[in-house]
């Protein structure tokens, strides 16, 4: 086989391999950048695709493959997850940028967008007022909220404490600067039974600490409110969270607005949400609790939703 022909065959094989590997081509108006290939990231991406107007061209890539060619000719770039958000922000595309599956604290740490209003976000964490309202709705006899403040959650803890006072709770606060502080902080907030509100601060609540936190709270007859369904499965009484499908649908609305000539909405928490309930924990603590769907429906009505 002549060498030039062999070279062309190899080049064609390389191009086909790159396409099969998911490298996004330049040109489609919408680019989805994933921090992980599966799980919640893939589910969010799929939800965005389904909710966009029929015929909308969408490309998808991962944060490691992001580059100048990948970002060329885009109108909207949607990052999914923290690593994707960091990569997109550092690349500073000229397109409108919407970050998803990112905490508010994570969004605040990103490099600023080149133009004001060019970047927005749908936060992963729930607003403080919604979390406290759920506790008041689900646990009307509760009087104290336990709040643990870490390096990236000080602002959220301040908001939770303010919302707690507005709803008639007494906030009990402690600071966790390092792992060794956690046990002492828990003892401080559990001098009396309290409802512990977990926050997405990895220095305080992570896979290494969650079981100790849940067990300590249980020994003090103190229920825990988590921020993901995994918390309810692990032993939290309640969990308040938004699903990838809910966040993806909200993201698709923002993308559609930009494609129609509008602007991105300001950064905001998710509109739709779910409530998870662990009835086994409720029975063990002697708590009468409504099911998650009922609590979510009542909470949504309080917020003026459907």
Automatic annotation (TrEMBL):
Keywords, comma-separated and alphabetical: Signal
Gene3D superfamilies: 3.40.50.2300
Protein's UniProt keywords contain RNA-binding: no
Signal peptide coordinates: 1-26
Superkingdom assignment: Bacteria
UniProt cross-references to Pfam families, sorted A to Z: ABC_sub_bind
Transmembrane spans: none
PANTHER family on file: ABC TRANSPORTER, SUBSTRATE-BINDING LIPOPROTEIN, ABC TRANSPORTER, SUBSTRATE-BINDING LIPOPROTEIN-RELATED
Name of this protein: ABC transporter substrate-binding protein
Organism: Thauera sedimentorum
